[in-house]
Design brief:
Length: 385
Amino acid sequence: MISGFRKKNKAGLPALFLLWLLFANGGCIEKAGEFDSTQVIDFESLVLRDFTDLLSKSELKMVPLETNPGILVGDFNLFRKNGENYYLFSQQDGRIHRFDKNGTFLNSIGEVGVAPGEYHNPISFIVKGEQVYVLSNEGSMSQIHQFKKTGEFIGKMAFEESTYYDLEMLENDLIFSTGSNPVFDNKYKLHVRSNKGESLKEFYPIEKRNLYSLAENNFHRYGKSVFYNESFNNDVFVVNPEGIEKTYSVNFGKYNLREDAFEGHDALANFDKILANGIGLIRSYFESEELAYLNLVTQQTDKATNFYHLFLDKKNGELNTFEALSGRAPAFEFINDNTIVLLIHPGDLLEYAGKHKEAFGEYEGLLGKMDINDNPVVMELKLNL
């Protein structure tokens, strides 16, 4: 249930520990202005429905991404659609692969290495017009490598004494997440820089706590709006040039983070305690003009990890919540007001389709030709909730 819903806005992985980088202790909780505490989604009151119900309420389009020996993407957590192209970051080879609207491979962007135009540790990317910006960590500094969408290297910017884990465009500037990492005397979670790299603004203070810094995908966007979420925080936000504004909060009930979660001196022991108690997390959050979307996960030691797609109708406050096909099938963005994009591992898709063939209609023939070792499948869902 939700109360006090807003009439209008201004605007991955199953094992949680795989999201972590062991740098320094840090965290952040900011009171982002006055917030109506009645705008809370009560997780334990949600009616959870099967993924098949989501398919039945959607107009489905499936696009298998071309598989060839040089382009094999087994692990992924970053995906964008820009214009008529799909962009997929491969954790296996550290490159971004571009496909056309039919899933045909066009070209690769970037390369891991030390030569000009290559990077060491790529962690995020965005597409802006005809250019692709790749964020990487090179030792103790972060860098932005700029490429044409066709793969040609343009140039790079290096940010000394700055460690960033995600980025997005904020109007004409770049905004970065620091992952609550307090190295180099950093005191803020979010940094804004010009498109030439000059530091413009830092905000959203870090509150120190005995837990390791997180490297995760914090930003999503729709149109000109930028949205932000982070692990171990039940609140989600919209970001604008003036700062950060809280939008929704999730009450996970028995999966809420306990007050003593960070009291121990050993960060790893604190993490184990959190998992033993059970934890609810917001893995991603973004909105269109009509809908708000949250990808939720509940996890507890020795129990199955569960993933959910939650949609909130911004006109009437109605909530629709569906079990995700798998933890490897998050939604990445709205491509219009009522169409959302998911990326599905073929093994997960074939396993599910084997039990629910009727849900895939005209795509039964396509599924019959698919192999579990193929590249991921794009699933666009035009929602009619």
